[in-house]
Input
Amino acid sequence: MALHILRRALDAFARMDTVAAAKIVRDDEAIDNEFKAFVRKLVTSMTEDPRTISIGLDYLFIAKAIERIGDHAKNIAEYVVYVAKGADVRHVSRGQLERDALGSSQN
Output
């Protein structure tokens, strides 16, 4: 998922495609949800068997690094909207970002 979203973010950047960039934000939320679910399962596993804590922490760091790839892709997408539209969408809702991105493609 993270590799796919990163490739799409770089493609949106190369084409300055704000609509594609807006979709990346939604996909990053899916990666975030997968990460949270993985952490819940991992904590449960480590709680049930403390011998798994060491390897569990290794898995946690790996999962966090993958989740960060999604965050970086989202940042690229937000910059695409900023460069193409001139709107800073880093701290707005996903709905507002999508409205800004769609508005720029209609001009």
In short: The helical segments are 2-15, 18-48, 53-85, 94-105. The two ends are 32 Å apart (CA to CA). Residues 85 and 104 are 6 Å apart (CA to CA).
